[in-house]
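Batch job 17 of 40 flagged for manual review because the log was empty.
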Amino acid sequence: MQKKIQLLSSGIPLVDKEWGGFYRGGTYLLVGSHKSGRTLLSLQYAMEAASQNEVCLFFTCMRPKDLMIQAASIDIDLQQYMDKNQIIVVRVAPPADSDMPERNGDEFLVEYLNDIAAVVDQYQPSKIVFDELTPFIEFNDFNLLQNIFSETCEKIEDAGITSLFVLNDPAAPASQSIVDSMVTLSTGIVYLKKEDEEQQGGEMIITPNIGHTEGQFRTEYHIEPYKGVTIDFSDNGPKIGMSARKSVA
């Protein structure tokens, strides 16, 4: 079903302040390292959808109980929204837990991405989260990855569904190439830059790829108990020139 393109509140503080939200039907990437707050920010995105009486489909490799504990740490009663079918949690098994080594790896991953679109079509949510997508996109053939990810996104976007795909911060050239290939197909990127794993926060950078002509912004963010991922609204840092908009780092 076609829906009018509009900005919707995302629950991501810097995005909502500087961009006014995400475009309905847009495809966004959330990139960050381990313990950078990616899952917490994804939960805030899902919670924002529920607060607007929309349905969010939440794909995760975590056990539902572990996800509920994560949500409780920022004062979100996930079970309440699951019971109301406002946040629908779908647990997915990582490829490493499957029989992928016995088959052509890329073909197996293609099936995973096709299954995403099939499940989304089944539930027809307003928004989706995939936390995290990294194990499902480790293709050997980057052209195949781009083609299948583009097809998957188009099916979801055509339904007016806004997507947030969570990716691990690339630590190797091959991983960086995979992320770069996905960046070109996204509407925008949210990057959580954390220098120290024990640090409760870091730098948040939002970079547009399509639309969001306000440009790229960065600011410090904090992970606060029972509040979640927050920023200092009094000082959001400098605006970065549009020439830098393709980079997530």
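Reviewer: the log was empty due to a logging misconfiguration, but the result itself is present. DSSP finds seven helices and twelve strands in the chain. Unflagging and moving on to job 18.
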